[in-house]
Amino acid sequence: MNLVNRRAVLKFEDDEGKVVVPKTKSLIKDSSEIYRDLIAKFRASGLPLEVDFRTLVEWVKLGDQYTHQIHTYPAKLIPHIANFFVKASTLFKNEKAVLDPFCGSGTVALEASLAGCTPYVSDSNPLALLITKVKTTNYDVQELSEELQAITYRCKRYRSAPEIAIVNSNLWYSAERKKALEIILRAVMEVKGNEIRDFFRVCFSVTAKRFSNADPAISVPVRLKTRERFSDATNNKIISKLKWLEESSPLQEFVRISLANIERVASANRFNSDRASASIISRDARRLACDSLGTKNFQVPLIVTSPPYGSAQKYIRSSSISLNWLGLIEPDKLTVLEDQSIGREHAPKFRRVMPQGELPDSYEDVVGKIKAKNELRGFITRQYLLEMKDALAEMARVTSENGHIVIVTGNNQVCNETLRNDEFIVTILTSLGLNLELSLIDHIKSRGLMTKRNRTASVISRESVLVFSK
Protein backbone atom coordinates (compact mmCIF):
# COMPACT_ATOMS: atom_id res chain seq x y z
CA MET A 1 0.00 0.00 0.00
CA ASN A 2 1.32 3.45 -0.86
CA LEU A 3 0.68 5.48 2.27
CA VAL A 4 1.84 8.85 1.00
CA ASN A 5 1.22 9.36 -2.69
CA ARG A 6 -2.43 8.35 -2.46
CA ARG A 7 -4.63 9.56 0.33
CA ALA A 8 -8.16 10.61 1.22
CA VAL A 9 -8.94 13.93 2.88
CA LEU A 10 -10.97 13.43 6.04
CA LYS A 11 -14.45 14.95 6.00
CA PHE A 12 -17.39 14.57 8.35
CA GLU A 13 -20.74 15.01 6.59
CA ASP A 14 -24.35 15.35 7.69
CA ASP A 15 -27.36 13.71 6.01
CA GLU A 16 -27.36 16.38 3.32
CA GLY A 17 -23.70 15.86 2.52
CA LYS A 18 -22.52 19.07 4.13
CA VAL A 19 -19.16 19.08 5.90
CA VAL A 20 -19.53 19.54 9.65
CA VAL A 21 -17.13 19.67 12.59
CA PRO A 22 -17.56 16.73 14.98
CA LYS A 23 -19.36 17.75 18.16
CA THR A 24 -17.19 17.52 21.22
CA LYS A 25 -17.36 18.72 24.79
CA SER A 26 -14.57 20.82 26.26
CA LEU A 27 -13.38 17.77 28.23
CA ILE A 28 -14.51 14.85 26.10
CA LYS A 29 -15.07 11.60 27.97
CA ASP A 30 -14.86 9.22 25.02
CA SER A 31 -13.49 9.63 21.49
CA SER A 32 -14.82 6.26 20.31
CA GLU A 33 -17.48 7.76 18.04
CA ILE A 34 -14.92 9.80 16.12
CA TYR A 35 -12.59 6.79 16.04
CA ARG A 36 -15.28 4.54 14.54
CA ASP A 37 -16.11 7.23 11.99
CA LEU A 38 -12.46 7.34 10.92
CA ILE A 39 -12.33 3.57 10.50
CA ALA A 40 -15.49 3.58 8.38
CA LYS A 41 -14.04 6.23 6.08
CA PHE A 42 -10.69 4.42 5.83
CA ARG A 43 -12.41 1.16 4.93
CA ALA A 44 -14.57 2.90 2.34
CA SER A 45 -11.66 4.59 0.57
CA GLY A 46 -8.83 2.18 1.31
CA LEU A 47 -6.57 5.23 1.46
CA PRO A 48 -4.86 7.06 4.34
CA LEU A 49 -6.96 9.90 5.70
CA GLU A 50 -5.47 13.36 6.10
CA VAL A 51 -6.29 14.76 9.53
CA ASP A 52 -5.20 17.63 11.73
CA PHE A 53 -5.13 16.25 15.26
CA ARG A 54 -4.99 19.74 16.70
CA THR A 55 -8.40 20.39 15.16
CA LEU A 56 -9.78 16.88 15.52
CA VAL A 57 -8.91 16.75 19.22
CA GLU A 58 -10.10 20.27 19.91
CA TRP A 59 -10.62 19.61 23.61
CA VAL A 60 -6.84 19.49 24.18
CA LYS A 61 -5.39 22.97 24.60
CA LEU A 62 -2.26 24.07 22.80
CA GLY A 63 0.72 25.07 24.90
CA ASP A 64 1.43 24.44 28.56
CA GLN A 65 -1.06 21.97 30.01
CA TYR A 66 -0.80 19.86 33.17
CA THR A 67 2.76 18.50 33.55
CA HIS A 68 3.59 18.17 29.86
CA GLN A 69 6.11 21.03 30.01
CA ILE A 70 8.04 20.20 33.18
CA HIS A 71 11.17 19.47 31.12
CA THR A 72 12.22 19.93 27.50
CA TYR A 73 12.84 16.92 25.26
CA PRO A 74 13.52 16.68 21.51
CA ALA A 75 10.82 15.66 19.00
CA LYS A 76 8.01 15.35 21.54
CA LEU A 77 4.77 13.77 20.39
CA ILE A 78 1.86 16.21 20.50
CA PRO A 79 -0.54 15.29 23.35
CA HIS A 80 -3.55 15.45 21.01
CA ILE A 81 -2.65 12.13 19.38
CA ALA A 82 -2.09 10.31 22.66
CA ASN A 83 -5.23 11.83 24.19
CA PHE A 84 -7.41 10.76 21.27
CA PHE A 85 -6.50 7.07 21.53
CA VAL A 86 -6.39 6.69 25.32
CA LYS A 87 -9.89 8.23 25.51
CA ALA A 88 -11.39 5.78 23.00
CA SER A 89 -13.15 3.24 25.22
CA THR A 90 -13.66 0.96 22.22
CA LEU A 91 -9.93 0.18 22.42
CA PHE A 92 -10.28 -1.26 25.92
CA LYS A 93 -12.24 -4.31 27.01
CA ASN A 94 -11.48 -5.17 30.62
CA GLU A 95 -8.17 -3.61 31.61
CA LYS A 96 -7.45 0.08 30.97
CA ALA A 97 -3.70 -0.07 30.47
CA VAL A 98 -1.45 1.64 27.93
CA LEU A 99 2.17 0.90 27.01
CA ASP A 100 4.64 3.23 25.32
CA PRO A 101 7.85 1.26 24.59
CA PHE A 102 9.59 4.44 23.31
CA CYS A 103 8.22 6.75 25.97
CA GLY A 104 10.56 9.74 25.56
CA SER A 105 9.49 12.36 28.10
CA GLY A 106 6.16 10.65 28.79
CA THR A 107 3.50 12.35 26.68
CA VAL A 108 1.57 9.11 26.16
CA ALA A 109 2.08 8.04 29.78
CA LEU A 110 0.73 11.33 31.12
CA GLU A 111 -2.32 11.34 28.85
CA ALA A 112 -3.01 7.72 29.77
CA SER A 113 -2.64 8.50 33.47
CA LEU A 114 -4.95 11.51 33.30
CA ALA A 115 -7.50 9.40 31.40
CA GLY A 116 -7.61 6.87 34.23
CA CYS A 117 -5.44 4.24 32.56
CA THR A 118 -2.42 2.46 34.01
CA PRO A 119 0.64 3.67 32.07
CA TYR A 120 3.57 1.34 31.35
CA VAL A 121 6.76 2.62 29.74
CA SER A 122 10.14 1.65 28.36
CA ASP A 123 13.03 3.72 27.05
CA SER A 124 16.78 3.31 26.78
CA ASN A 125 17.41 6.88 27.95
CA PRO A 126 17.41 7.08 31.78
CA LEU A 127 16.62 10.81 31.63
CA ALA A 128 13.45 10.02 29.65
CA LEU A 129 12.39 7.49 32.27
CA LEU A 130 13.05 9.95 35.11
CA ILE A 131 11.02 12.73 33.45
CA THR A 132 8.17 10.33 32.67
CA LYS A 133 8.03 9.04 36.23
CA VAL A 134 7.98 12.56 37.69
CA LYS A 135 5.51 13.82 35.12
CA THR A 136 2.94 11.14 36.03
CA THR A 137 3.38 11.15 39.83
CA ASN A 138 0.56 12.52 41.97
CA TYR A 139 2.63 14.55 44.43
CA ASP A 140 1.44 16.27 47.57
CA VAL A 141 1.81 19.90 46.47
CA GLN A 142 2.17 21.17 50.03
CA GLU A 143 4.98 18.71 50.66
CA LEU A 144 6.77 19.87 47.50
CA SER A 145 6.44 23.51 48.56
CA GLU A 146 7.85 22.82 52.02
CA GLU A 147 10.74 20.83 50.59
CA LEU A 148 11.55 23.65 48.18
CA GLN A 149 11.89 26.00 51.13
CA ALA A 150 14.26 23.54 52.83
CA ILE A 151 16.38 23.19 49.68
CA THR A 152 16.59 26.96 49.34
CA TYR A 153 17.66 27.30 52.98
CA ARG A 154 20.42 24.72 52.53
CA CYS A 155 21.66 26.36 49.33
CA LYS A 156 22.12 29.67 51.13
CA ARG A 157 24.14 27.98 53.88
CA TYR A 158 26.45 25.86 51.71
CA ARG A 159 29.75 27.25 50.43
CA SER A 160 30.94 24.14 48.59
CA ALA A 161 29.66 20.96 46.97
CA PRO A 162 31.05 17.84 45.27
CA GLU A 163 32.37 18.55 41.77
CA ILE A 164 30.24 17.05 38.99
CA ALA A 165 31.90 15.75 35.82
CA ILE A 166 30.19 17.21 32.74
CA VAL A 167 31.12 16.40 29.16
CA ASN A 168 33.02 19.40 27.71
CA SER A 169 32.24 21.32 30.89
CA ASN A 170 34.42 24.30 29.99
CA LEU A 171 32.30 24.94 26.90
CA TRP A 172 29.05 25.16 28.82
CA TYR A 173 29.86 26.72 32.20
CA SER A 174 32.13 29.21 33.85
CA ALA A 175 33.74 27.92 37.03
CA GLU A 176 31.63 30.26 39.18
CA ARG A 177 28.34 29.29 37.53
CA LYS A 178 29.12 25.58 37.72
CA LYS A 179 29.92 25.85 41.43
CA ALA A 180 26.58 27.62 42.06
CA LEU A 181 24.76 24.79 40.28
CA GLU A 182 26.72 22.13 42.20
CA ILE A 183 25.58 23.69 45.48
CA ILE A 184 21.95 23.51 44.35
CA LEU A 185 22.40 19.88 43.33
CA ARG A 186 23.97 19.07 46.71
CA ALA A 187 20.91 20.50 48.46
CA VAL A 188 18.56 18.58 46.14
CA MET A 189 20.33 15.27 46.65
CA GLU A 190 19.90 15.61 50.42
CA VAL A 191 16.11 15.40 50.08
CA LYS A 192 15.04 12.28 51.99
CA GLY A 193 12.25 10.76 49.88
CA ASN A 194 13.15 9.30 46.47
CA GLU A 195 10.02 10.52 44.67
CA ILE A 196 10.28 14.08 45.94
CA ARG A 197 14.03 14.10 45.30
CA ASP A 198 13.37 13.02 41.71
CA PHE A 199 10.91 15.90 41.25
CA PHE A 200 13.58 18.41 42.23
CA ARG A 201 16.23 16.58 40.19
CA VAL A 202 14.07 17.25 37.13
CA CYS A 203 13.69 20.91 38.15
CA PHE A 204 17.46 21.11 38.63
CA SER A 205 18.06 19.59 35.18
CA VAL A 206 15.96 22.34 33.61
CA THR A 207 17.96 24.94 35.56
CA ALA A 208 21.32 23.45 34.59
CA LYS A 209 20.37 23.41 30.92
CA ARG A 210 19.08 26.97 31.08
CA PHE A 211 22.33 28.20 32.64
CA SER A 212 24.58 26.45 30.14
CA ASN A 213 26.12 28.19 27.15
CA ALA A 214 24.25 25.80 24.86
CA ASP A 215 21.93 27.34 22.27
CA PRO A 216 18.36 26.76 23.58
CA ALA A 217 17.02 26.77 20.01
CA ILE A 218 18.99 23.61 19.12
CA SER A 219 18.23 20.28 20.78
CA VAL A 220 21.84 19.02 20.79
CA PRO A 221 24.41 21.08 22.73
CA VAL A 222 25.87 23.76 20.44
CA ARG A 223 27.67 26.72 21.98
CA LEU A 224 25.63 29.91 21.89
CA LYS A 225 27.47 32.76 20.20
CA THR A 226 26.91 35.49 17.67
CA ARG A 227 27.75 34.78 14.06
CA GLU A 228 28.22 37.01 11.01
CA ARG A 229 25.66 35.05 9.00
CA PHE A 230 22.94 35.72 11.61
CA SER A 231 20.64 38.71 11.36
CA ASP A 232 21.09 41.65 13.72
CA ALA A 233 17.88 40.67 15.51
CA THR A 234 19.14 37.11 16.09
CA ASN A 235 22.55 38.27 17.29
CA ASN A 236 20.93 40.78 19.64
CA LYS A 237 18.86 37.99 21.17
CA ILE A 238 22.01 35.93 21.65
CA ILE A 239 23.79 38.87 23.30
CA SER A 240 20.80 39.35 25.58
CA LYS A 241 20.79 35.67 26.55
CA LEU A 242 24.52 35.68 27.28
CA LYS A 243 24.09 38.79 29.42
CA TRP A 244 21.26 37.08 31.31
CA LEU A 245 23.52 34.10 31.99
CA GLU A 246 26.13 36.36 33.58
CA GLU A 247 23.71 38.45 35.64
CA SER A 248 21.06 35.96 36.78
CA SER A 249 21.02 33.80 39.90
CA PRO A 250 20.88 30.02 39.35
CA LEU A 251 19.19 29.58 42.73
CA GLN A 252 16.48 32.13 41.96
CA GLU A 253 15.87 30.47 38.61
CA PHE A 254 15.75 27.02 40.23
CA VAL A 255 13.10 28.29 42.66
CA ARG A 256 11.11 29.86 39.82
CA ILE A 257 11.24 26.64 37.76
CA SER A 258 10.30 24.53 40.79
CA LEU A 259 7.31 26.74 41.62
CA ALA A 260 6.12 26.57 38.02
CA ASN A 261 6.41 22.77 38.02
CA ILE A 262 4.62 22.53 41.37
CA GLU A 263 1.73 24.47 39.85
CA ARG A 264 1.74 22.08 36.90
CA VAL A 265 1.45 19.16 39.32
CA ALA A 266 -1.40 20.95 41.10
CA SER A 267 -3.17 21.37 37.76
CA ALA A 268 -2.84 17.65 37.01
CA ASN A 269 -4.02 16.82 40.54
CA ARG A 270 -7.13 18.94 40.05
CA PHE A 271 -7.91 17.13 36.80
CA ASN A 272 -7.41 13.59 38.20
CA SER A 273 -6.33 13.20 41.79
CA ASP A 274 -6.34 9.37 41.51
CA ARG A 275 -4.11 9.05 38.46
CA ALA A 276 -1.53 6.26 38.39
CA SER A 277 2.16 6.96 37.92
CA ALA A 278 4.04 5.26 35.10
CA SER A 279 5.55 1.83 35.73
CA ILE A 280 8.88 1.13 34.02
CA ILE A 281 8.76 -2.39 32.62
CA SER A 282 11.95 -2.38 30.57
CA ARG A 283 14.77 -0.28 29.21
CA ASP A 284 14.83 -1.95 25.80
CA ALA A 285 11.87 -2.00 23.39
CA ARG A 286 13.24 -5.23 21.92
CA ARG A 287 12.84 -7.03 25.26
CA LEU A 288 9.70 -5.74 26.92
CA ALA A 289 8.73 -6.92 30.38
CA CYS A 290 11.69 -9.27 30.70
CA ASP A 291 13.61 -7.49 33.46
CA SER A 292 13.71 -7.91 37.21
CA LEU A 293 10.04 -6.97 37.61
CA GLY A 294 9.13 -10.57 36.83
CA THR A 295 6.45 -9.66 34.30
CA LYS A 296 7.31 -11.99 31.42
CA ASN A 297 3.63 -12.73 30.82
CA PHE A 298 2.80 -9.02 30.73
CA GLN A 299 0.22 -7.97 28.12
CA VAL A 300 -1.65 -4.74 27.40
CA PRO A 301 -4.75 -3.92 25.35
CA LEU A 302 -3.24 -0.76 23.84
CA ILE A 303 0.21 0.38 22.74
CA VAL A 304 0.66 4.01 21.65
CA THR A 305 4.17 5.00 20.64
CA SER A 306 6.35 7.07 18.34
CA PRO A 307 9.57 5.15 17.63
CA PRO A 308 12.76 6.88 16.54
CA TYR A 309 13.26 7.20 12.81
CA GLY A 310 16.21 5.96 10.79
CA SER A 311 19.17 8.36 11.24
CA ALA A 312 17.24 9.46 14.28
CA GLN A 313 17.11 12.45 16.55
CA LYS A 314 20.24 12.72 18.68
CA TYR A 315 18.47 11.84 21.91
CA ILE A 316 21.55 10.91 23.93
CA ARG A 317 23.59 13.89 22.76
CA SER A 318 20.67 16.23 23.42
CA SER A 319 20.40 14.79 26.94
CA SER A 320 24.13 14.59 27.66
CA ILE A 321 24.43 17.61 29.97
CA SER A 322 21.45 16.53 32.10
CA LEU A 323 22.56 12.89 32.11
CA ASN A 324 25.93 13.93 33.53
CA TRP A 325 24.56 16.41 36.06
CA LEU A 326 22.09 13.89 37.48
CA GLY A 327 24.65 11.09 37.68
CA LEU A 328 22.70 8.95 35.23
CA ILE A 329 25.76 8.31 33.06
CA GLU A 330 29.40 9.33 33.22
CA PRO A 331 30.80 11.54 30.43
CA ASP A 332 32.99 8.77 29.02
CA LYS A 333 30.06 6.32 28.98
CA LEU A 334 27.72 8.35 26.75
CA THR A 335 28.63 6.30 23.66
CA VAL A 336 27.85 3.11 25.59
CA LEU A 337 24.36 4.44 26.34
CA GLU A 338 23.93 5.48 22.71
CA ASP A 339 24.82 1.94 21.61
CA GLN A 340 21.83 0.70 23.57
CA SER A 341 19.47 3.01 21.66
CA ILE A 342 17.53 2.13 18.54
CA GLY A 343 18.12 4.71 15.83
CA ARG A 344 21.61 5.68 16.97
CA GLU A 345 23.49 8.30 14.99
CA HIS A 346 27.04 6.92 15.25
CA ALA A 347 28.85 3.68 14.48
CA PRO A 348 32.62 3.91 15.08
CA LYS A 349 34.61 2.28 12.30
CA PHE A 350 36.20 -0.39 14.51
CA ARG A 351 32.69 -1.72 15.24
CA ARG A 352 31.34 -1.36 11.72
CA VAL A 353 30.46 -4.90 10.68
CA MET A 354 27.30 -4.93 8.58
CA PRO A 355 24.49 -6.28 10.82
CA GLN A 356 23.11 -9.66 9.81
CA GLY A 357 19.42 -10.50 9.52
CA GLU A 358 16.54 -10.59 7.05
CA LEU A 359 14.82 -7.51 5.72
CA PRO A 360 12.07 -7.21 3.07
CA ASP A 361 13.63 -7.14 -0.41
CA SER A 362 12.76 -3.50 -1.08
CA TYR A 363 14.57 -2.46 2.11
CA GLU A 364 17.61 -4.55 1.24
CA ASP A 365 17.71 -2.56 -1.99
CA VAL A 366 17.46 0.77 -0.14
CA VAL A 367 20.21 -0.20 2.30
CA GLY A 368 22.41 -1.27 -0.64
CA LYS A 369 21.93 2.09 -2.36
CA ILE A 370 22.70 3.99 0.84
CA LYS A 371 25.78 1.85 1.52
CA ALA A 372 27.09 2.53 -1.99
CA LYS A 373 26.99 6.27 -1.24
CA ASN A 374 28.01 6.19 2.43
CA GLU A 375 29.14 3.01 4.16
CA LEU A 376 28.49 4.40 7.64
CA ARG A 377 24.91 5.44 6.82
CA GLY A 378 24.30 2.06 5.23
CA PHE A 379 25.43 0.35 8.43
CA ILE A 380 23.29 2.62 10.63
CA THR A 381 20.20 2.21 8.43
CA ARG A 382 20.42 -1.58 8.29
CA GLN A 383 20.95 -1.83 12.02
CA TYR A 384 18.01 0.49 12.66
CA LEU A 385 15.65 -1.56 10.47
CA LEU A 386 16.68 -4.86 12.06
CA GLU A 387 16.30 -3.48 15.57
CA MET A 388 12.93 -1.93 14.71
CA LYS A 389 11.85 -5.28 13.31
CA ASP A 390 12.66 -6.89 16.68
CA ALA A 391 10.87 -4.10 18.57
CA LEU A 392 7.76 -4.46 16.40
CA ALA A 393 7.71 -8.21 16.99
CA GLU A 394 7.97 -7.59 20.73
CA MET A 395 5.09 -5.10 20.60
CA ALA A 396 2.98 -7.68 18.80
CA ARG A 397 3.88 -10.28 21.42
CA VAL A 398 2.79 -8.20 24.41
CA THR A 399 -0.43 -6.91 22.83
CA SER A 400 -3.52 -8.64 24.19
CA GLU A 401 -5.79 -10.64 21.91
CA ASN A 402 -8.09 -8.12 20.17
CA GLY A 403 -5.73 -5.36 21.36
CA HIS A 404 -4.37 -2.48 19.32
CA ILE A 405 -1.03 -0.91 18.45
CA VAL A 406 -0.89 2.78 17.45
CA ILE A 407 2.39 3.89 15.88
CA VAL A 408 3.26 7.45 14.92
CA THR A 409 6.06 7.54 12.37
CA GLY A 410 7.48 9.59 9.54
CA ASN A 411 9.49 8.97 6.39
CA ASN A 412 12.89 10.53 5.87
CA GLN A 413 15.75 10.50 3.42
CA VAL A 414 19.20 9.07 4.01
CA CYS A 415 21.79 9.96 1.38
CA ASN A 416 18.90 11.10 -0.87
CA GLU A 417 17.28 7.67 -0.61
CA THR A 418 13.77 7.64 0.88
CA LEU A 419 13.40 5.46 3.95
CA ARG A 420 9.75 4.46 4.10
CA ASN A 421 9.36 3.81 7.82
CA ASP A 422 5.56 3.67 7.47
CA GLU A 423 5.57 0.90 4.87
CA PHE A 424 8.23 -1.00 6.83
CA ILE A 425 6.02 -1.00 9.93
CA VAL A 426 2.99 -2.11 7.93
CA THR A 427 4.98 -4.91 6.26
CA ILE A 428 6.40 -6.26 9.52
CA LEU A 429 3.27 -6.08 11.66
CA THR A 430 0.96 -7.52 9.00
CA SER A 431 3.43 -10.37 8.49
CA LEU A 432 3.00 -11.07 12.21
CA GLY A 433 -0.75 -11.45 11.77
CA LEU A 434 -1.93 -7.96 12.75
CA ASN A 435 -4.44 -6.03 10.68
CA LEU A 436 -3.99 -2.42 9.56
CA GLU A 437 -7.25 -0.99 10.91
CA LEU A 438 -6.63 2.71 10.28
CA SER A 439 -4.07 4.88 8.48
CA LEU A 440 -3.93 8.63 9.07
CA ILE A 441 -1.58 11.41 7.93
CA ASP A 442 -0.96 14.47 10.08
CA HIS A 443 1.22 17.44 9.14
CA ILE A 444 3.83 18.45 11.70
CA LYS A 445 3.48 22.06 12.80
CA SER A 446 5.91 22.00 15.71
CA ARG A 447 9.35 23.33 14.84
CA GLY A 448 10.67 21.04 17.54
CA LEU A 449 9.94 18.10 15.28
CA MET A 450 10.97 19.62 11.97
CA THR A 451 14.71 19.28 12.45
CA LYS A 452 17.48 17.74 10.38
CA ARG A 453 19.04 14.87 12.24
CA ASN A 454 22.32 14.83 10.27
CA ARG A 455 23.63 16.31 7.05
CA THR A 456 22.62 13.27 4.98
CA ALA A 457 19.04 13.27 6.29
CA SER A 458 15.96 15.31 5.48
CA VAL A 459 13.45 17.38 7.40
CA ILE A 460 10.32 15.45 8.37
CA SER A 461 7.17 17.54 7.87
CA ARG A 462 4.40 14.91 8.01
CA GLU A 463 3.72 11.83 10.06
CA SER A 464 1.68 8.69 9.61
CA VAL A 465 -0.51 7.42 12.43
CA LEU A 466 -1.00 3.70 11.90
CA VAL A 467 -3.45 1.64 13.96
CA PHE A 468 -3.20 -2.16 14.01
CA SER A 469 -5.57 -4.66 15.60
CA LYS A 470 -4.50 -8.10 16.81
TrEMBL record:
It comes from the Bacteria. One of its GO terms (molecular function) is methyltransferase activity. Pfam families: UPF0020. PROSITE patterns: UPF0020. InterPro entries: RlmKL-like_Mtase, RlmKL-like_Mtase_CS, SAM-dependent_MTases_sf. Keywords: Methyltransferase, Transferase. Residues 72-120 form the Ribosomal RNA large subunit methyltransferase K/L-like methyltransferase domain. One of its GO terms (biological process) is methylation. This is Putative RNA methylase family UPF0020.
